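[retry 2/3] DUF5723 domain-containing protein: previous attempt timed out, resubmitting with same input.
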Amino acid sequence: MKQRLTLIITLLLLSSAVFAQRIAVFGSGTLFESLENPAIRVLKSDCNLVQFNCFIPSFTADTRIFGDADTLLRNNALNKSRTLYHIPPLANPQNVNYWVGTTSINWIAAKILLDYRTHSELLIDVSSKAYGTGNIKNEAVSTFNSNNLEVGSYSNQFVTNSYGGAYTQVAFGFSRSINDFLTAGIKLGYASGINYGDLKFTNTRMDIQQSLNEPEENELFLSLTGSSKLLGKTDSLTANHFLPNFKNPGFTFSAGVNAQFNEDWEASLYVKDAGFINWNDFNREKVYDGRRYINGILLKDYSVDSVKNLLKFNDTTITQKHFRTSLPARLEGGVSGKILPYLRSSFFVSMPLQNWQSDLAIINDFFYKNYHFLLQAQYNTNNAFQVGTHFMIKSRVCDFIIGSDNLLGTIKLIKAANDDTFYYYDSRTTANVNFGVVFKFGKCYYAETATYIPMDDKKKSRTARRRVQRTKDFGE
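[retry 2/3] DUF5723 domain-containing protein: success.
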């Protein structure tokens, strides 16, 4: 049970798609972008028949914390820091700290040319995704240190709505040109739920009273109204849990359109990762009905572990039932165009459909031959500004990208995660990393490039005739 509890807390606090994924690849015309927007065609422009990641998974991860206690929460989550036990009360008790995260690993990704004349392409995507979001008040963070509690009543300091989940997706997409101007695409997938956790408190009350048995000590009483859910997974996740299965079936949906104004300018609009999962595997929901769940514990014995114990399913309020959760869908789009012979710029907008909090980004792609240096500036409506850099190679045989949507924040997170005790006010902590490799196979042939039609019966000549015939069939 302890390991299960650790898992749900990890999902709720760290699950690294609540926020935008792979912002930097927007407008790149790569398979990485096509995984986000199935309307993006990549084979015609690169003159390939197949693009494939060759079992080198591409991945993206994004974690963000907003609020006065961001350093405390980060340290506590990443390295089990005891800092929470040594802080004075935070200022502005009602201020809320937010954390969100998303991770996506594309185990298999491929695009296959079906018809050159209509630019029809088949997309294959086998991936694992995790997401999490939550909130907590400064007042709740302060109460983790019992020295901050005095005799009196504290209401609604533990009100929260936090959840996290993980699933594997097997998806197929199809894109086709509608005309010379528009291309449309759709991606449908089967989801296999891996794990899920949900914590909702709508009303809480903490009372601190002088102990009758030990007059020099104070006792804590805590009443809760709400619920918590936890999927009944095994004590530890293994590789088998990430394989497609039918225990927790779901459905995913992505669709988009791409408009090509001319050779230099295009625009896209798409919805991604919409869908749901039916959690049918053994799972439990615990209902908190407003009674006292901590009843007279001495403050000297109170700790964060006392609150964690509330999540354990060890009393008669447990109910076993199946439930359905929606996936964190996003609406995204933007405009991309060539500004200078060596610069392509994009304006990108991403908005989750479950809460109205958007990302706005300007992406500048400075390129020379096959080499691209991406510099982006991004603003989130939760008042977080960040700068990212990526390095990308786009060649005839391979695409490669590595970088971070928030380079400085990522470096800062790595350094600060090793600090167990030092606390400083920051209010903005984010980290992000992107990596991917795609290999390209096959060449397309154009009728206008054919200089002769061989007439002998040699094997080499027969192959050449078939190539010429295919260019006629494809036609421009």
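[retry 2/3] DUF5723 domain-containing protein: The first strand starts at residue 50 and ends at 52.
[retry 2/3] clearing retry counter.
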